[in-house]
Amino acid sequence: MAHTPTLVTHTIEPLFDSRSRVLMLGTMPSPKSREYGFYYGHPRNRFWPVMACLWDEPPATTIAEKKALMLRHRLAVWDVLAGCEIVGASDASIKRPRPNDLARIIDAAPIEAVVTCGSAATRYYERFDAPRWPELPHLALPSTSPANARMSLDALVKAYAPVKELTEGGEAAAGVLAALAPTAAAVSDPEDSAPGVSAPGDAR
Length: 204
Known about the structure:
Elements: E1 6-9, E2 22-26, H1 31-36, H2 47-54, H3 63-72, E3 75-79, E4 81-87, E5 90-99, H4 103-106, E6 113-117, H5 119-128, E7 138-141, H6 153-168, H7 170-179
Parallel strand pairs: 2-3, 2-6, 6-7
Antiparallel strand pairs: 1-4, 4-5
């Protein structure tokens, strides 16, 4: 396996509309996601199964179905970084990170909370974005990559349950928001533990 960093630019458009309430952020599209043309494009990444389980819906299989699922539940999706040098899909190998301008979404939609998916996304959000929006509640969640093998699908669904509460508003959302500090502590993921080593199959 080659360990030469590649300069990568983010080319997948953010997904949001005027109803989006929660912004979900990854780090950077993996090679598989760039090839697929949408977020979490590796077939073994569990992001989309988790989203379907949260709302007890059939799994979304096409890009159109995935977009519809997110917008239906008032979720926006993007990544923290607009570009970087990276080896495969290894977030731990990232150098020269360049952030996306999240104002594109935050200024256009009624975003009430930010969710980062994986410890690298959390780190870069706290570095580049949390100081700009210190009042915006931030929830750090574990990665859905198969590199995070210690967490089963059921465990991930349980960890992501606050996302559903945040999108639905009311007392449940208020409880989650009240529990969140302005920025959350980083979550440790196995995918970030070994610089220069890609997650299995570039699995994001």
